């Protein structure tokens, strides 16, 4: 999806001001901003609840203006904070409303409803025939998500879907949502004002302020390279850096798992097999001379002769002691352009510091 | 006491009168409901004609029942047709007004999400607005039930049959037992139908607008 210089004007103020960005297939793109920043307006432009005054929105290369809005909306799931389950319909009728209008067979609707209720962790036998007012807020929001997924849309639009829930429930639903997202591989545009939520969920974040997108980037890019003061204020970078100063490597590392270790002098073919079956992209090799190197799966795959020893592909690695503080680890990683550091204590590998996951946990 | 009731019931043919009364009642109410809901849907879809409609109906509502009968007599003659017509003319407004209000006042939250997930304007009207307006519509029908009962009783004046006849006869003949029994009976029917309508209204409210 692509926004090309899109502007929306409400009574002479520009709610969305010359916004351009691309969203890649399968990514979770978060629009982050305070209320009035234009993030919800941007979302509503996508499914043509409103039309832009200037600019064009493309979906798979086609201008959305040329599409029938009703058909367009049926190909996008939509979830909002107020949930908006229809009170006169049962859970099943709510989820099945669009399939029914699309004249699906009754048994197909039932089957789909059951699938979706299972997906959102609501036992179908217990919930199918209930009315929305008989459900808790969290259950309602799960049904809301199930309804959005009913037509198996490739694109999902979410407007602060967890905003009205209490913090504990919100966290739980965010985690569930992440695991559902991994199963479904959908493109998701997610609007929120909650920075923690944005950092937990996002692949990339677009920071909005006064109708403009100030910066687009991954969570760590925003945290460490905010383009200006407004972005760093919205992200709250200053506060985060305080934590970075007192945390040490041993506080943030992931304990070493044997699956990351490879024998030296293994052939590329063997290493590739092991890494693929362990679902890892990267391994550590301890050489007999005491050097520690990392081996990256894509390096091995690019190489043509699979009989070569993996020692030839070892890359240098950032090694830090357990009491190194986080800010110097980050500086070290940044200067060597790496994302991973090994924590070593007297020749013993203790753990890994993956900077991206550390940052997510920090926020 | 019981003897008096039985003899009045027999001489005034109250069984027959009750059947006439109720058949006019159901015919008039059904016509009113159908016309009023269709009119409300039309007016809702074309709000510009809405004001004219409601003004006309408001004017009709202010005409006393007897005067309305007199207007209708040259057109529809005597008997059941003008009575039913009067019932309908009076009942359309409360049902239509409530239907219209019910359609228009469905919370925007539901309309917005319905639109966003891809319902067309007509689907929103019939699948969302109309069902959610049902409690209010039934409230309007309840008002119409009371109007219709009263007007049909007045229909006795213009030879429409029904329970107005024994009342008229009782007044002319100064037959106090007939007046009392017939009026108590009409009253009871009115209260019973109102109660039934009230129960339905409550059920619908709980089903369609539980919040």
Kindly describe this structure.
The complex is a heterodimer of chains A (363) and B (211). By secondary structure, chain A is of the alpha/beta class. Chain A has 17 helices and 17 strands. A six-stranded mixed β-sheet of chain A has the order 6-7-8-3-9-10, sandwiched between helices. In chain A, a hairpin with a 5-residue loop joins strand 13 and strand 14. By secondary structure, chain B is mainly alpha-helical. In chain B, helix 2 (14-45) runs antiparallel to helix 3, helix 5 packs antiparallel against helix 7 (121-154) and helix 8 (164-173) runs antiparallel to helix 9. Chain A binds chain B through residues 44, 47, 49, 70-74, 77-78, 80, 82, 84, 86-88, 97-98, 101, 131, 133, 147-148, 157, and chain B through 109-110, 112-120, 123, 127-128, 131-132, 134, 207-211.
